[in-house]
């Protein structure tokens, strides 16, 4: 007992010194999101059109599948968070998942983009199984990966910096996926898209495993704050359910990410059937990714000026303006469409705020409720990401069906207008609406410092009590 108390006291005294992270640590952590998005950006950008135009199932079936699978995830993601934060190993709580799970994640990722020689019914069953398993394995690696950031530093600015690295590589992955995926598919497949999708996914999956292992190897330093009572399931539940700041952030993230993921999966339709120029797929995705990646590099500086809340609101405003520009542009006005894409991409500077603010809501839960549950809180955020992906994809697919989209055919005027609505107008409105929940987010630098000071006093008081009871 005496050794444990002494260890806890030493931990408290050293936290301030350990808050700063090296460039290599931040870089290594950042490439983890590049790894995640070699799968998830691929899924968001190409899985819908893969299912409708190559796999051979109807848009309404895809829409239904996306929703049904996410309902299952509603139970699975929190379970992963609860298990991860209670994991005990020589590698800590979260790092083991970055060593073992990526191998299985890569295997299912490849199978998801494989066309089996089955009947339509068999293909639908196969799609349900592989897509469900992909989402579950994505959670099993991505929830611990995200939660790892919450124990790497307790400094508010360092959290923003760390997650800026993460979002920079998210955008780099989007650039890579957007610009080279379809050319790779066509080149490798030599006209056979089934073969092209398969081997392109194999390549991405191998790279993803290696990058996850890089995170595991180089992100060893974590600050494990002392726990003075065992974390119960009730504590984890209350840390989420009674966390008003997390709830505001989750609603903001749902609106923002539904807009983002929904649009990513529809850009290919917009380029092929509205602009009548398939080559614009890589251009639109690439331009958006480049300017988003550039803007993210300025996020730490913007956040210091506007605060995290102000940065998130400003980014939503800029992003929605860009999408409105695209929606009102004629399909053949490429300069205007590119301008809207650039403005929309610049709005990406708010993306790191979501993950940086999640870490702050962990502190808020401990301060307000007395429960520090990194895994449960981050798994809720991960769940919102997957729900947003499902909503964006299913609404987009349902919208295509509603407006009369026919795969691999010349579209009617109504169908073309519908593609523009679901690709640009609906995401613009959702991005603008995301400002509303952010108005209720209250954790600024002043409150954060107050929370941190009071939490340190509480922890020291608990340690003193433990010393007296020795």
Any chance you could write out the topology, listing elements then pairs?
Elements: H1 2-18, H2 23-55, H3 59-85, H4 96-112, H5 120-150, H6 156-189, H7 193-218, H8 233-241, H9 244-264, H10 267-274, H11 280-296, H12 299-327, H13 334-346, H14 351-368, H15 374-402, H16 413-433, H17 435-438, H18 445-468
Written account of the structure:
The protein has 470 residues and is mainly alpha-helical. The protein has a single domain (26-222, 231-468), classed as Up-down Bundle (Growth Hormone, Chain: A), CATH 1.20.1250. Helix content is 80%, strand content 0%. It contains 18 helices and no strands. The chain has helices at 2-18, 23-55, 59-85, 96-112, 120-150, 156-189, 193-218, 233-241, 244-264, 267-274, 280-296, 299-327, 334-346, 351-368, 374-402, 413-433, 435-438, 445-468. Helix 3 (59-85) packs antiparallel against helix 15 (374-402) and helix 6 crosses helix 14 (351-368). It is globular and about 70 Å long. The relative contact order is 0.16. Mean pLDDT is 86; it is low at 1-17.
Return the structural class: mainly alpha
Q: Roughly how many Å is the radius of gyration?
A: 22 Å
Low-confidence segments, given as residue ranges, are 1-17
What string gives the helices and strands in order?
HHHHHHHHHHHHHHHHHH
* Domain count: 1
Helical content (DSSP H or I, runs of 4+): over 70%
Mean pLDDT value: 86
Which architecture name does CATH use? Up-down Bundle
Q: Largest sheet, if any? A: none
In CATH, the topology is named Growth Hormone, Chain: A
